[in-house]
Design goal:
about 230 residues; globular; about 45% helix; Fic-like fold; single chain
Length: about 230
């Protein structure tokens, strides 16, 4: 099994030795076989997620369950928050609270119509990746969560530069198209970061109380954020 992880893969988050031991299929002997197993599992997870309308989408339970559906046939830690540090993401001990805050923020954005639906979905994807809650698979997981959200809001799925998520786990800086506009705009992963200059988590405004929203729905909500057309 060590040969699998000795082979470099720029698209994969490096795993700890303990996490590597949680590989389930015993027949995997190289990185190509691992990538193929992961992608097949991701596609099955996608089919599961798209099979029915999800009322519990913006919950921790669904967020972790989706990750398990996407990688649970390959990794025992699928669906569990990471317990080690990464060069990406927040400290692992902050993940549960940060995820709950994100889910609450998204609910508030929807309720108070803080942003257009596609912007809400992209903001959700961007912050979920920034949290990096799982040992691996955070990219395809966050993109599918955003797809499910925009569909729930009445929009169309993002293409993410692919026809589907079959290759999405290995995607780096690929373009995607925001659908549902009169003039759809092509953006790269770098363009998403330019589209949304995320305010540091500590600076995010709290979800407004209903009585305060009229005073905070405009400039304050969009302060320090620049939209590129």
């Amino acid at each position: 099994m060590s040969d699998v992880f000795d082979q470099p893969d720029d698209a994969a988050t490096p795993l700890s030795v303990e996490e590597q031991r949680d590989l389930i299929p015993s027949h995997i002997s190289n990185r190509r076989e691992l990538n193929e197993a992961e992608q097949e599992n991701i596609v099955r997870g996608q089919d599961w997620a798209l099979g029915r309308r999800r009322r519990d989408l913006l919950t921790e339970k669904f967020t972790t369950n989706l990750h398990k559906q996407m990688l649970g046939e390959v990794w025992r830690w699928a669906g569990d928050f990471r317990h080690s540090e990464r060069n990406l993401g927040i400290p692992f001990y902050e993940i549960p609270a940060a995820l709950r805050q994100l889910l609450d923020d998204v609910k508030a954005w929807i309720e108070y119509k803080s942003y257009p639906p596609d912007e809400i979905a992209v903001r959700f994807q961007h912050r979920l990746v920034a949290i990096h809650p799982f040992p691996n698979g955070n990219g395809p997981h966050a993109r599918l969560m955003a797809d499910l959200l925009i569909m729930q809001l009445g929009g169309k799925r993002f293409s993410w530069g692919r026809a589907n998520l079959r290759d999405a786990g290995k995607m780096r800086a690929q373009p995607f198209r925001i659908e549902g506009r009169r003039q759809p705009r092509l953006r790269t992963a770098a363009g998403v970061r330019a589209l949304i200059r995320v305010i540091p988590p500590s600076s995010h405004p709290p979800a407004p109380r209903t009585g305060d929203w009229a005073a905070t729905s405009g400039d304050q909500q969009r302060k320090s954020i620049r939209l590129y057309s």
